[in-house]
Amino acid sequence: MPDHAAVGSLDVLMLIRRAALDRIVSGEIDLVFRRWKQPTVKTGGSLRTAAGMLDIVGVERTSRSAITAADAHRAGYATKAALLAFLDGREGDLYRIEVRPGGTDPRIALRENDELSPADLDAVVARLDRLDAGSIGPWTRATLRLLADHPHVRAQDLVDSIGRDKPSFKNDVRKLKALGLTISHSPGYELSPRGRRVLDHLGV
User: Fold this and answer.
1) Looking at the predicted structure, is the pLDDT value of residue 195 above 80?
2) In percent, how much of the chain has pLDDT > 90?
């Protein structure tokens, strides 16, 4: 079984295009080849992607000569030469990554669940308190309120309105998203049903 505790962000770790992700979900692709100076995924891990979860079945170093035409087809390339042309434009050791669909991102189901008991609400508030304590100051409640009041507003406009830098703000919103409290859009964000329930409970 995949180690869902070892969940990473696909955009950072593997950079797979949406078209290829859809082919992984459909079963057309089950191999990915990458050059890395250091492996960024591990066997048994999983990744969140735009197409749902992706399980990492196996990761191993390989070589150009070990790649077969069948491997190239499994990776979504018409020929081995086409795959090598993609890989040769990059630096690092060559890795063969076996993948499979991992199901729906659990955050989607979480964010739709707004039927929270008092104990559930206390647990979420405790998580928010820990996030505040681990930062330079309290930000969770103010950020939830900001997103509730300004849905679908560009991140740059939001940070300009509160005097924050964009990278750290977006990182904070991702922490709230991991708790199922926000939904990302293009542009901007909004509170999920769960997030609205928590904000109502907080009374801010």
Assistant:
1) yes
2) 76
Q: pLDDT tens digits, residue range 117-157? A: 999 999 999 999 999 999 878 999 999 999 999 999 999 99
- Could you give the CA distance from residue 35 to residue 95 in angstroms, rounded to a whole number? 6
> What is the mean predicted confidence (pLDDT) over 152-170?
96
Residues 29, 76 contacting (CB under 8 angstroms): yes
CA-based R_g, the chain, Å: 20
**Cα of 153 vs its chain's centroid, Å:** 21
Q: What pTM, to 2 d.p., does this model score?
A: 0.62
Dihedral class, residue 16 (left if φ above 0, else alpha if ψ from -120 to 50, else beta): beta
SS (H, E, C) the chain: CCCCCCEEEHHHHCCCCHHHHHHHHHCCCCEEEEEECCCCCCCCCEEEECCEEEEEEEEEECCCCCCCHHHHHHCCCCCHHHHHHHHCCCCCEEEEEEEEEEECCHHHHHHHCCCCCHHHHHHHHHHHHHHHHCCCCCCHHHHHHHHHHCCCCCHHHHHHHHCCCHHHHHHHHHHHHHCCCEEECCCCEEECHHHHHHHHHHCC
What is the identity of the amino acid at 5? A
- pLDDT exceeds cutoff 90 at 12: no
